[in-house]
Amino acid sequence: MIKVKKYWWKDFFNRIYLITDARSIGDAKLTSREVDLLEKNLNLNKDDRILDLFGGQGRHSIELAKRGYRDLTVLDYSNYLINRGKRLSRKANLKINFYQGDARSTTLMSNVFSAIIVMANSFGYFPEERENLRVLREINRMLKFKGKLLLDLANPVYVKNNLKPMSWHRIGNDVDIFRKREIKNNLVKTQEVVISKRKGLLRDDCYCERLYSKTRITQLLKKTGFRNIKIKNSLSLHKKRQDYGFLTSRMIVTATK
Question: For 186, which of 44, 76, 180, 211 could close a Cys bridge (C-beta 3.0–4.6 Å)?
Answer without folding.
Answer: 211
